[in-house]
Design goal:
The protein is mainly beta and 401 residues long. It is built from 4 helices and 23 strands. The protein is 8% helix and 31% strand. The strands form 7 sheets. Strands 1, 3, 4, 6 and 7 form a 5-stranded antiparallel beta sheet that branches. The protein has a 4-stranded antiparallel beta sheet with strand order 11-10-13-14, with no helix packed on it.
């Protein structure tokens, strides 16, 4: 019969002193109990067998004869995770233990950021419970990350992580909001034009809080829905007015006065933009003269005098997009805004969310130029005015929220 190892003589190579102190001693039964044969097998083979923190110097597959009692069993194999379990040896009861070992996986750090931050992360369909910015420890393989942030559209990113390599992935989250509206982020921008007319001066740095603005000018078809709801007034149908043409349902509504435009926006749960909101949506953060940049207008970028003799369908000129994604903010039709007109307002207006609501005066500001405007009147800082109760075939509007 195989003799029991003497604890003083048992090799302890590979076992740290801390492990030996923390490993419970076997709870033996009677010293007269006969040893029991236990067979050990692992996949793959060759694992070292550790009992109660002491190396038996045996490797799988093998058999050991042990006295009845409780043992702590460890099966160790390089590049594989150590298998740890309690082993209960019963008197007169031999047994066979077969264990499939799991290969060790070297995790790699993955730095995850987003703009704005605070997005919840889902990794390969499982919620991580972590928010950006953070570092995830992931297995070396292809992964799918989903960024979720309230008020923003979900963003999905695919990334391939190699072994023992640091990786980084970032996402820019876009706001989700009303249909056919674009988000204009809050912050500072340059308003006005020192090289323009006196009413465009001085150029000043304005802070404007964020808002939604219609991607397109309000169309004939959309305005008709408000008329059908018996809220909006019928637009004029005289010559040059788009409402009189059945083929122009996707053209901007024109021939409506300031009060008609305000009523429609209120019916739609919106409002007319202020001058500052309109200009920021058209211009962006930098002091560019046109929605597309600083280059001179062409008929591929805007509808102005010499291009055609009437309006065109909204959004049909892709090059007319502003930095935030709004179309036709230069040319096509002038657009009513909320402010009362004052050619000296820029010299005394507020530098934060400015709007001129002073009493008196029957003129409101119109912006952007129209299909019959000369090219020097369609830059985004140009300001004009129109009488609030008058209608024109050259004036339409869009709304904000």
């Amino acid at each position: 019969a195989e003799q029991e190892d003497d604890p003083e003589d048992t090799p302890t190579q590979g076992i740290s002193p801390k492990e030996r102190r923390s490993t419970p001693k076997a709870q033996r039964l009677s010293g007269n109990s006969r040893k029991v044969r236990i067979r050990f097998k692992t996949t793959p083979k060759g694992a070292s067998i550790i009992l109660d923190g002491r190396n038996t110097r045996k490797r799988t597959p093998t058999s050991l004869r042990l006295r009845p009692g409780r043992y702590q069993l460890q099966l160790r194999l390089p590049s594989y995770q150590t298998h740890i379990r309690d082993l209960m040896v019963k008197a007169n009861h031999s047994q066979s233990i077969a264990v499939p070992l799991s290969r060790k996986t070297n995790l790699s750090p993955l730095k995850v950021t987003s703009t704005p931050s605070g997005a919840l992360l889902t990794l390969d369909g499982k919620e991580t419970g972590k928010k950006t910015p953070t570092v995830l420890q992931v297995t070396p393989q292809k992964h799918t990350l989903v960024f979720t942030l309230k008020g923003h559209r979900n963003v999905t990113k695919k990334v391939t992580v190699g072994p023992n390599e640091a990786h980084a992935v970032s996402a820019r989250l876009k706001r989700s909001g009303p249909a056919e509206m674009v988000w204009v982020a809050g912050g500072p921008f340059w308003m006005g034009n020192n090289a323009g007319m006196s009413r465009e001066k001085p150029m000043r740095r304005i802070f404007q809080r964020g808002f939604w603005i219609d991607r397109y000018e309000v169309t004939v078809a959309k305005y008709k829905k408000c008329v059908d709801a018996k809220v909006c007034k019928q637009p004029s149908r005289r010559r040059g007015c788009n409402a009189r043409h059945k083929s122009r349902t996707n053209h901007p509504i024109n021939c409506v006065n300031w009060y008609h435009a305000r009523r429609y926006c209120r019916w739609a749960g919106k409002r007319l933009p202020t001058e500052a909101q309109w200009e920021k949506a058209a211009r962006g953060k930098t002091p560019q003269l046109y929605p597309w940049g600083h280059t001179s207008p062409t008929c591929q970028k805007a509808n102005y005098k010499g291009c055609r003799n009437s309006t065109h369908p909204v959004g049909s000129l892709k090059a007319s997009r502003s930095p935030y994604g709004a179309y036709d903010m230069s040319g096509n039709v002038w657009e009513w805004v909320r402010d009362r007109f004052d050619d000296k307002y820029y010299t005394r207006g507020f530098d934060k969310n400015p709007v001129n609501l002073t009493r008196g005066g029957r003129y409101r500001v119109i912006r952007g130029g129209a299909w019959n405007s000369p090219p020097d009147r369609i830059h985004v800082t140009y300001r004009s005015d129109f009488y609030v109760t008058r209608r024109s075939k050259t004036i339409g509007f869009r709304c904000v929220k």
